[in-house]
Amino acid sequence: MRTKVIPIVDLKSQLHDVQEAARLIASGEVVAFPTETVYGLGANALDSKAVNKIFEAKGRPGDNPLIVHINHISQWDELVDSVPEKARILAETFWPGPLTIILKKSSIVAEEVTAGLDTVGVRMPSHPTALKLISESGVPIAAPSANRSGRPSPTTAKHVLEDMDGRIPMLLDGGVCNVGLESTVLSLAGVTPVILRPGGITVEMLRQVIGQVDVHNNVMKPLQDGQKPLSPGMKYSHYAPIAPVTLIRGDYLKLIGFMNQEAGRLEDEGKRVGILATDQTLRSCNHGIRLSLGDREKPSELAFNLFARLREFNHLEVDAILAEGIDEKEEGLAVMNRMARAAGFHIIDL
Ligand code: AMP
Ligand code: MG
Questions:
Q1: Do both 12 and 74 map to the same domain?
Q2: Cis peptide leading into residue 140 (ω within 30°)
Q3: Does ligand 1 have an atom closer than 6 angstroms to the CB of 281?
Q4: Farthest CA pair distance, the chain
């Protein structure tokens, strides 16, 4: 299969291009498209066969459910059992935007989308091309990130092609995704709202609007043997570059000392070492192949850079990556959640 890549530079004058992609979606095909979080791989959420093509292209385990993307609130009412007051308020505040809300599902959602669960995650993306694609296709679009399962999520069209070239019929190239990490996944299906995956809408922001919001234990900790995950995604390895990642966190001065020492030790063993750290830390680093995550004081900048940097290390063919842990406040929690998983929870606490 040849993957047709269409750069979307001016949505208004290129409506016909988006309509071509929308026709593919409506006819049961998959299309990769930009959102403000990461690139998505979309299919008609009401069509089981179409949704199966997503799992096939990604190599995604069939029990890991997909998020459904809508462009209008009225679509939400059809996809879920009912929309409670808190959900309504959150949608009014944060949609369109990087917040996925999980509620009990209705019967029209394809079984494959929810992987047999009785709940469905829905969000309204803010990227104009994504919104136009959904409205032109006339159906809600189920879309996970457009990477091969287990790899870092794509934040540029080039990343999508690295993983999907020849596996999907079309990719809309909308440039760089400006959030850079996937949406926050918030479950409102239980008694207390709980974050299953942190993202661009932070726990601090959610608490300001609806009060109590819990952060699930497994956001920063691996599942115990035999533990059933509340969100199936929690049990899979994720976001991993090819080289093994070690995440280092704790006292900042110790961290700098340890990174230098460990990088030196690995270099002495003849290894190519990748250092993934903030601007501030890199100033004191004199070993390895160094890539910047951005300004330590700006968690949204760190979020924006993370996945692209992990992919860059693949091209640099490093043997090991040492990654700097950052504060788990604001978007920092989402960054640390992704880094811990990229490291397979190989974390050194200083
Ligand atoms: P991705 O589509 O790659 O961004 O991953 C979607 C994430 O949302 C995965 O971690 C899923 O496990 C999670 N998710 C989607 N739908 C549900 C649901 N109904 N209940 C719990 N988690 C969900
Ligand atoms: Mg994903």
A1: yes
A2: no
A3: no
A4: 61
Structural domain for 161, as ranges: 4-219
- Please tell me whether residues 278 and 326 are part of one structural domain: yes
**By alpha-carbon position, which residue is closest to atom 2 of ligand 1?**
144
Q: Domain count of the chain? A: 2
The DSSP call for residue 145 is: B
- Cα(337) to centroid(ligand 1), Å: 14
- Give the Å distance between the CA of 147 and the centre of ligand 2: 7
User: Which residues face 172 on adjacent strands?
Assistant: 6
Taking the CA of residue 117 as reference, the ligand 1 atom at the shortest distance is 19
The 3-state secondary structure of 148-214 reads CCCCCCCCCHHHHHHHHCCCCCEEEECCCCCCCCCCEEEECCCCCCEEEECCCCCHHHHHHHHCCCE
Q: Is residue 116 part of a domain?
A: yes
Q: Are residues 172 and 61 in the same domain?
A: yes
Q: Is the CB of 309 under 6 A from ligand 1?
A: no
Given this model, what pLDDT does residue 232 score?
Answer: 80
Q: For a ligand 1 pocket test, name from 58, 66, 109 the mutation site with the most ligand atoms within 8 angstroms of its C-beta.
A: 66
| Count of other CB atoms within 10 angstroms of residue 133 | 30
Q: Are residues 270 and 137 in the same domain?
A: no
Question: Which atom of ligand 1 lies closest to the CA of 64?
Answer: 12
- pLDDT-based confidence at residue 239 (cuts at 50, 70, 90): confident
235 in a domain, yes or no? no
Is the CB of residue 232 less than 8 Å from the CB of residue 102?
no
Q: Is residue 290 in a domain? A: yes
| pLDDT of amino acid 229 | 82
CATH code where residue 333 lies: 3.40.50.11030
pLDDT band at 237 (very low <50, low <70, confident <90, very high): low
pTM (2 decimals)?
0.96
> Percent of the chain at pLDDT above 70?
100
Name 142's Cβ contacts closer than 8 Å, sequence gap at least 6.
Answer: 42, 43, 44, 45, 51, 54, 66, 67, 68, 69, 110, 113
Question: Do 283 and 138 share a domain, yes or no?
Answer: no
Do residues 215 and 168 both lie within one domain? Answer: yes
